[in-house]
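Async update (no meeting this week)

Hi team, since we skipped the sync, here's where things stand on the single-chain job. The sequence we agreed to prioritize is pasted below, unchanged from the tracker. I ran it this morning and attached the output directly underneath so nobody has to dig for it. Comments welcome in thread, and please keep replies under the output.
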Amino acid sequence: MQETSTSPATILQFRQDIEAQFRRHIREALETALAEELAAALGSAPHQRTDQRRGYRNGSIERTITTPEGTRGVTVPRARIADRDGRTTEFHSQLLPRYARRTREIDEAILSCYLGGVNSRRIRTALKPLLGERHVSKSAVSRIVGRLKALFATWQGRDLSTERYPIVFLDGFHLKVRVARRVVSVPVLAALGVTETG
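Output:
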């Protein structure tokens, strides 16, 4: 039996073919989920005549979404949904919000890098091979971090006067954070309250 040698070019082509198949299936799965969501909102499948129909399809648009597997083009269906008064409003997907350009996993990866002390330039450099230059711009990183800061400010200012915590744990530790373009060790005091229901 004669052995066949596989050249690096053949291996590379094989990997590219596998990745292309993988990307195509990700797109198909996302588009199928969007079609199912729209069918549920309309109360009917495409071309189905039913008394329960709550609107009509209105074509589709092509959107570019950045996922953990890279940037993908996705066909997003459009529709008009009728309310009880007979007025129609544009269908907005819950799976893929209107202005979303990245999946939640991408935003979480960027936040994890930032909270780990990595500056925005290094985040962009690290994620550029996967996501491309324009999808992880400095302004995109700033918006994601700004959203985190706003959520933290809301959480920090919440009213605790009506809460009851029969058990409170107190602790302190040092955490490395980025302050004024330097990573420094900051002391953190933590209080963890346990409610009566656990």
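Quick observations from my side:
The radius of gyration is 24 Å.
Residues 1-101 form one domain.
Reply here if anything looks off.
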